[in-house]
Structures are given as structure tokens and as C-alpha cells.
């Protein structure tokens, strides 16, 4: 494990260096060691997946029936039954295979990434491609992707509870430990599956995949699990209920048929066929495919659902608690105002281009030199100007501004780069804005860091709301801090004024707070800055006392243009939006009001005010609060629990390590894909690949649509089963005739439960879908309204078929012709019925007849198969059919179309009544 060797010895043993491996060497090692993955259970082969389709009890009975038919000399019946069973198996196989492939795609999309040094560059690569010898860069929130020996640590603490069960994060070091040191005490090792709770570090990977500590505990890690969805469980219950009811009816009619003179074998065969037709055994597979296809559509809309059951939750969500920065806003910070030396300066320039100046009134107060074009800037080269910062005197004309900008640039982990004439930042956008602001005054971060080498730091955390670095220069060791203005002010006893350090009086402190409020009212995000000269041996944590206040910087992060519309869409859909942010109360309120989150009568609560409320009082007012400002991650958990107690289905966004409890507690935890930590992503149900609130609303719409489509094709199938059962039941009871024979029932089941439901799962959202209220989480799989509609349409199909039977018997039509007419009438009626269930509320004409081309192709394919069953000689023999004439079709098509006409009239009347 290399814990008993020095860092240099480990690098030598692994034949690598801190400059990282080359891409070529990494590929060679990947071939040698294999992918950094745990071995999964043996996957079901394609052959096994196909054979598994024939394990159903009813399928087994059908096979037995085919064998009995063959033994009795009914070879055609035996062949037709086996052929139908085979086709049903193929259909089930295709559905399950597509579901498996969709889930496999989801796994690949959610595979974690790691930041490593390759070819002397910092790059993000999929964790599966890591190899021993890779140099791994770690920061707060990262999930450790492989076992690694630490080379550098900066206040690094790792949560190893997933490996050791120890709840407290373990402080790490680069010390060498004796050979007999037990695994949990090897503090220079970072283990696979653990998480960085605090600080930063650099490490060299020593073991991957099954060779890691977690690999030896094979199977403890997982990504997306293939699990049964709540919908599938409900479908099973629904299927069992329908199956029991059907079997009772079938048994009753079969016995009655035998008593009325039908042969026992014929009634057995018919009973099995009717049971297969009535029980929706294919629906779970269709539902899985529908869910998987819907989730793939969500990916295109920047929402990655990690587990299929979450789709059902999306349809019920009625409150979305969201972060502000990056989610509601563009996360492209630009410094617009600066407060130094008791004066507010305006900053010009836009975006990340380091061109602009600082103005006091109309007078510029800093140099504004052009960026050198002689030396191109790339990710591999330091940003520089013609005149790099190498002088002892300030570059800025204003010493106070210089001091502030230096603090902002040094207490900072972001960078400024230029690629193909375009300026951009690396790292956090807020920190990037500070680096750009400094560059506008000629203070370039990389050149500055060469003179002020960082020797220690206290990383930013959402609890502390500040960050401090220790930087060594020829003038001595300095601490630089940045963070929430109130926190920075609390750490200061002095202020830099008139080029001197003076006492920070209560009057000046109040002036700073007033300036802070004024900036916040202008929707600026404000940060405070401080510095202090410290002793050489001081601990970083001790440096955050008795500091000198340097000033404020006000940044603007404009709201995303699409968010205001998305929030209005949420309101129409019965979904409340709640903002939860660490920003100042005034800034949060101003943006919430601008976006339409805050409404008249709502409340704005700060973290301190929330702490002052007991649980009972908070639960009384929680429904009125639309903005939470200056909150900590634990407050998110409190908000989620209070809202859930009120019966709400809550979606919660988060990106930090400490957001994980709230994300897990929420009904729908939503992690940020860009800024989110690995820990927050792992705790979430869904990941936003663009960190955009509008994508949450798109996902809710898609989730609602998936549920709508699933319910619709269940209702479509229910119509078919009800119709066939009623036709045969009444035919046997009233006329002692089987209106359709067993093989015809099996054929109806096969072709109508195949392509049309799949096509219905691809139906686009209804126009009014996001104007409906969220469905209740306790709502059943199929509503009473849908059951009544299915029962009505099934009865209509049965009445028409029995009417044809009655008319045909009275006009001397032969039994094979009668059975062919009813057989075809049922299939064509169900094809018209498929168009009914594109929407349970909207007319096919308002949706557009050709807007779901998949359904048109599915219906045409099914009709062609039915035509083959009645016109192709070999299939005529198999299905006991006879050719139909033009006059027969002239009767069938108008009768079949009434299923569509009846539903259209019902939808029209419902809309009239609703209006």
C-alpha cells in the first residue's frame, strides 16, 4: 500500500512523477491493469434473456396446450399456439433488452469523473480510466476514485465512514507510517469510496478496481441499481387483481361451455387463451421501457435521473427548494462596485475579459494597460502582460484598491485563461470575478503568486463562510481572508484608511454595513476582504483574528433569462418555488421578487431567525416562507422535514458535501452537475447537467408526461381485455357460440399489446400538462375516470361485435365468417382506440393527427399483420379465417371508428362542462 515509504520512493516505485503520466503511458497501463471498476455480477446473456421470456405460468400452460393439440392430431392449432408464444417471447425480449440498454446508458452517463494530471495538464477523466501512477488532485466534496498515497495535503480531512464506520472525518498527512500500522490508521492513504470532507490534496494512485481496499470487499459500491419501480409494483398488484377476476370468470364460462356441449379440450384451450389475453403480463416490461425511454429524453433536456423510481416522484412534486447562484442565475460573476477607503468605486468592463477600469466619479483610479498579444495565453502557460507584476510598489494608483485586489487574488483558487482570443476562468465563478477584477488593475494572479507563495490555508466552508490563505513574501508572512462581509467584519479590529491601518470604530463599522445593504439592494453579491501580517509559526486558523479590513467587492450574477418563465410555469402547475441561499437577505429578496418567487404576503427568513424558532412555530409559518437567506446546509434539512410534515412532495437542490443530508431527506434530491461535488451527486435522485432551474421544470414536465403515457397505455390495454372477455362471455352464455377462437384471442393479445403501447410511450407532453395540479402520491395507478372510460369503450367494442354476431346468425352467415368479422372488428377497433389514449383529455384533432408518427407506423404495422391473418392462405388455415369482402370492410371500419368518435364526444362534453 506504500504507506511505509516516502513520497519520492512511491513515485519511483510506480514509475511516475508529479507531472503525471503521458496519455500513451496511461493507455498502456489501462491495458495492463484493466478499468478502475469493481467486478459486477455476471450479466444475463442474450440467450438467457430470451429464454427467460418463456418462464411465465400462462406461457407454460400454452406450451402444454400446444403439445396436447399435437397429440390429438390438431397440428395446425399446435403450430399457431407455438408460433404465437414465440412471437410473444420475441416481443418481451425486445422490450427487456431495450430497457437493459437504456439503463446501461444511464450508468455510463452517471459514471464519476476525477481530476488528474496527464501530459503535465490538469484534466477531468472518467474514474474508470484511472491507472496506478496517475496523479490525483483532491478537493472538498470529491469522492475518492481509487486507493492513493498522499503527496501534498492542505487541511485535508476525509470521511472514511463508508469503509471504517468512523463518523468523524480523519485528518490526513504525508508522514511515513510503520509497516505494522493498521489500515484505518494509515493517514497518508486515501481509500476508494471515501469522500473529502475538508481541504485539498494531491496523491498518486497506487491501486485501482478490485485491487483497492474496497475491491477486496467486492460489491459494496454501486451506481444505478436495476430495481423494481413503484409503478411496476402497482402494476403487479393491478395485474393480480385483474388476473384473479378473469380466471374466476373464465373458469365459470369454461364449465358452462362443457355443460352446453363444447369439448373439454376446446374449452380448456379457449380458457387459457382468454386468460392470457385478459391478464396484462407484458405491461411491466412495457412500463420499464417507457420509463427508460422517458429518462433518456430527460438527458436531452439536461436532467439526468439516476434511478427510474424517481420519475414517479417528479410527477407528484409540489415544492421546489432551489439554490440561487448558478441555478436561478447565470453563475457568471462580474465585479461592478468596490468599497475602499470609505468610498465606492465603479468598475467597467464585461464578462471575463480583463479590460476595464475603476472610477471614482468620472476619474479613473487604476492603470488600464492593454493585454500583451506577444505571448499567447493557454491553460499550460501563465497569464502575463507586457509588464508583469514584479515591482515592489503598487501597480494601481490607489494603494487601498491595490491592497483589496491583492487580497482577492491571493485568497483564491480560480485562474484566468485565454483560448483563441476568448477569455475564460477556471474554478469558481465568484473567485474568477475577483481574478478578473485584479487583472483590470494590472495585477496578474500567477505573477503575484510567484512573489507571495502560499504556505497554508483554511478552506472556505458553508459553516464558516470565509476562506483564509497564508502567503510568504519578502516582507514576511501575511494572512488574506475573504468571505461574507459580516463574518469578515467580525474578525477585524482595524481598517486600512489613508494608507494607514487605523482602529475600526463602531461608526466606521456601521458605515460599512450601510454600504453593504446599499449594494445588496442593487442585487449585488457582496464579499468582504481582510489581511494581517502574522508570525512565521502561526497556525492558519489562528490567523483569522484581529485582522485589518481591506474593503468590499460587489458582484452581479444576472438571472437566467429562461428562469422567470420556468417559475411562472411552476406556479401554473401548482408547484411552489422556494429560494434557499447563503447570500445576503436584501440581495436574495431583490432577486426573488424580480423572478416572481416572492409574492405579496410571503416571508423572508435568515438562518439566524430560523435558529430562533422552535420546530412547532417554524412548521406553522413554513408554508408562507418563499426566501431563506444566509442559511447553512443544516437549515436545508430542517426546511425539508418541516415541508414533508405538511404533506408536501419536496424537491431540493444542492451542490456541497453538507447538502447531502437534505438531498437524501428530500423526496427528490437534485444535485448540480457542473458545480456539484461527488458526494452531493451520490446523495441525489437527479443531476442537472447544466445547473439550470429551468431544467428542473423540464424534468418535472417530462416526469408528468411519462406517467401520463404509462397510464394511457394501461387504459388502452384495459379496453382490449374488457372487450374480449365480454364478447366471449356473452357469446357463450347467450348463443352457445365462441365468437372468437383461442388462436384468434392469442393473436389479438400479441399484435395489440406490442407496438401501439410502445408508440404511446413516445407521446409528447400535452399542451395543458403543466397547468394541471401535481398528482397525489397516494393516487392509484389507474383513476376511476380511466377505468370508467376503459369499461365504456370495452363494452362498446363488445356490443358492436355481439351485434355483428346477432345479425350474422339471423342472415345465415357461416361461423368461420362470423368469427373472422368479429376477430377483425376487435383489432381495428383497438387501433382506433390507440389514438384515443394519446391523451385522456385532449382531442386527437387538437394534438394533430400526424404529430406522433411512431403511433401511425405502429397502427399501420398492426393492420398489415391483421390483413395477413385473413388474406394469406397459410395464415387463413392457422387462424381459421376467411377472406373479407369490400362490403364487409364497409361495415367494419365505420363500426370500429365509433370507439374514437365516442371518446372524442366525451372529451368535448367534459371540456364544455369544465368551462
Automatic annotation (TrEMBL):
<feature type="region of interest" description="Disordered">
    <location>
        <begin position="358"/>
        <end position="396"/>
    </location>
</feature>
<feature type="compositionally biased region" description="Basic and acidic residues">
    <location>
        <begin position="359"/>
        <end position="396"/>
    </location>
</feature>
<feature type="transmembrane region" description="Helical">
    <location>
        <begin position="855"/>
        <end position="874"/>
    </location>
</feature>
<dbReference type="InterPro" id="IPR023299">
    <property type="entry name" value="ATPase_P-typ_cyto_dom_N"/>
</dbReference>
<dbReference type="Pfam" id="PF00690">
    <property type="entry name" value="Cation_ATPase_N"/>
</dbReference>
<dbReference type="InterPro" id="IPR001757">
    <property type="entry name" value="P_typ_ATPase"/>
</dbReference>
<feature type="transmembrane region" description="Helical">
    <location>
        <begin position="886"/>
        <end position="905"/>
    </location>
</feature>
<feature type="transmembrane region" description="Helical">
    <location>
        <begin position="713"/>
        <end position="738"/>
    </location>
</feature>
<feature type="transmembrane region" description="Helical">
    <location>
        <begin position="49"/>
        <end position="72"/>
    </location>
</feature>
<dbReference type="InterPro" id="IPR023214">
    <property type="entry name" value="HAD_sf"/>
</dbReference>
<keyword id="KW-0812">Transmembrane</keyword>
<feature type="transmembrane region" description="Helical">
    <location>
        <begin position="744"/>
        <end position="765"/>
    </location>
</feature>
<keyword id="KW-0067">ATP-binding</keyword>
<dbReference type="InterPro" id="IPR004014">
    <property type="entry name" value="ATPase_P-typ_cation-transptr_N"/>
</dbReference>
<keyword id="KW-0472">Membrane</keyword>
<dbReference type="InterPro" id="IPR023298">
    <property type="entry name" value="ATPase_P-typ_TM_dom_sf"/>
</dbReference>
<keyword id="KW-1278">Translocase</keyword>
<dbReference type="Pfam" id="PF13246">
    <property type="entry name" value="Cation_ATPase"/>
</dbReference>
<feature type="domain" description="Cation-transporting P-type ATPase N-terminal">
    <location>
        <begin position="1"/>
        <end position="74"/>
    </location>
</feature>
<dbReference type="InterPro" id="IPR008250">
    <property type="entry name" value="ATPase_P-typ_transduc_dom_A_sf"/>
</dbReference>
<dbReference type="InterPro" id="IPR006068">
    <property type="entry name" value="ATPase_P-typ_cation-transptr_C"/>
</dbReference>
<dbReference type="InterPro" id="IPR059000">
    <property type="entry name" value="ATPase_P-type_domA"/>
</dbReference>
<dbReference type="Pfam" id="PF00689">
    <property type="entry name" value="Cation_ATPase_C"/>
</dbReference>
<feature type="transmembrane region" description="Helical">
    <location>
        <begin position="78"/>
        <end position="97"/>
    </location>
</feature>
<feature type="transmembrane region" description="Helical">
    <location>
        <begin position="786"/>
        <end position="806"/>
    </location>
</feature>
<dbReference type="InterPro" id="IPR044492">
    <property type="entry name" value="P_typ_ATPase_HD_dom"/>
</dbReference>
<keyword id="KW-0547">Nucleotide-binding</keyword>
<keyword id="KW-1133">Transmembrane helix</keyword>
<protein>
    <submittedName>
        <fullName>Cation-translocating P-type ATPase</fullName>
    </submittedName>
</protein>
<dbReference type="InterPro" id="IPR018303">
    <property type="entry name" value="ATPase_P-typ_P_site"/>
</dbReference>
<dbReference type="InterPro" id="IPR036412">
    <property type="entry name" value="HAD-like_sf"/>
</dbReference>
<feature type="transmembrane region" description="Helical">
    <location>
        <begin position="241"/>
        <end position="262"/>
    </location>
</feature>
<feature type="transmembrane region" description="Helical">
    <location>
        <begin position="268"/>
        <end position="293"/>
    </location>
</feature>
<dbReference type="Pfam" id="PF00122">
    <property type="entry name" value="E1-E2_ATPase"/>
</dbReference>
<feature type="transmembrane region" description="Helical">
    <location>
        <begin position="818"/>
        <end position="835"/>
    </location>
</feature>
